[in-house]
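Lines hold sequence, tokenised fold; shown next:
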Amino acid sequence: MLLRGRVYVVDGDTITIRRPQIRLFGIDAPELNRPYGIKAKWALVSLCKGHLVAAEIVAQDDYGRTVAKCFLPDGRDLSAEMVKLGLAIDWPKFSGGRYGALEVPNARRKLWLADARQKGRLHVWERFEANQRAPAGGQGQGNSRH
């Protein structure tokens, strides 16, 4: 199935076209409340602005979102463009490694939370969230003196 239309950008790897929420195929971008999350969203907004995007639906994810390969009118793959910008990383489990060669140097270090999620290191996420909830100046911010 193919959808085509103007998009609303939810975050760096999620858009909507008309109604359905669409997860960009094969990549992982940071959530809005994670480092680089806002930057990733606005990069995707810039790519899509003023264009009709074509979404070729390929699956449904575990959260009920539609997964699609999304293309700009000139044929550019939105997933590939986000990876080339260094604001998303390939998710080989889903892409088969399709975007891995496009990753910029140190992208996985910069987007370390996304990398941790892909590798099942959820304790890294939990520690980050605990640090976000901790009061400023407390040990949760990494300011302890050892």
